[in-house]
Design goal:
243 residues; alpha/beta; TIM Barrel; 3-stranded antiparallel sheet; 8 helices; 4 iron, 4 sulfur cluster binding; S-adenosyl-L-methionine; EC 4.3.99.3; queuosine biosynthesis; rSAM_sf
């Protein structure tokens, strides 16, 4: 069984859209958003996947979500059928933190026909051995200090060492200030991250904030040989579920 986020109560967040971030930006894909996360970013734009009533981990909005309305549990075969019905040739699995459900994900992915699989992860959880060979791309987004997570929980050296061995891994760092770029550069040097497969992306949930931050982030990306990612879905659809 898989635990998914919802668009509306009882309706799993499974949809077709254009990938809005990272190396596959602009590509038509199917999405499935899983629920639950082991981290708690203060700026998280999908807090409805983890900050349920009774969870006191800090978030800038201070909102708490009812678990029953924002989670749904489905059989892996049901999830696979809904994904296949969207008619796409690529699936993006996101969250929350998808790799917390690696065993069930592996069972679900084996039921997909003719689809490549892309997983978005915070990089703190190792892929399940049964799932790993089925994944064509990982978008690993380690969380920086400004996320509010303890560094020893969000930046695990052993995980970095494992991720850099995988050729299908891309790194993506969410940046809010120029100081965050300095932290990214330190992580690149410390953990020998492949600069040519490392993105920096502005944090923001509205077009004005993203554009303002891209104005100073773009020259820094150029200066340091990093890739720049926009958040295209925010410009197209706003900060909404199922997009």
């Amino acid at each position: 069984m898989l635990t998914l986020a919802t668009t509306t109560p009882g309706e799993p967040e499974i949809f077709a859209s254009l990938q809005g971030e990272g190396p596959s930006i602009g590509r038509p894909v199917a999405f499935v958003r899983l629920s639950r996360c082991n981290l708690a970013c203060t700026w998280c734009d999908t807090a409805y996947t983890w900050r349920f009533e009774g969870d006191n981990r800090p978030h800038r909005d201070g909102l708490a979500f009812e678990r029953k309305a924002n989670q749904v549990v489905l059989d892996e075969a049901d999830v696979a059928a809904r994904i296949m019905a969207l008619g796409q040739d690529r699936l993006v699995i996101t969250g929350g933190e998808p790799l917390l459900q690696g065993t069930a994900l592996a069972r679900m992915v084996t039921l997909l026909e003719g689809m490549s699989v892309e997983i978005e992860t915070n990089g703190t959880v190792a892929p399940h051995p049964a799932l790993d060979p089925l994944v064509s791309q990982y978008n690993v987004s380690p969380k920086l200090k400004h996320s509010g997570n303890p560094v020893d929980s969000a930046q695990i050296p052993e995980r970095f060492a494992e991720w850099i061995q995988k050729p299908q891994v891309w790194f993506k760092f969410v940046v809010a200030t120029p100081d965050d770029v300095a932290e990214v550069l330190d992580l690149i040097e410390t953990h020998r991250l492949p600069r040519e497969r490392t993105f920096v992306m502005p944090e923001g949930t509205d077009s004005a904030t993203l554009r303002e931050r891209e104005r100073w982030l773009a020259p820094l990306a150029l200066q340091h040989g990093l890739r720049l990612s926009d958040r295209m879905h925010i410009h197209l659809y706003g900060d909404t579920r199922g997009t």
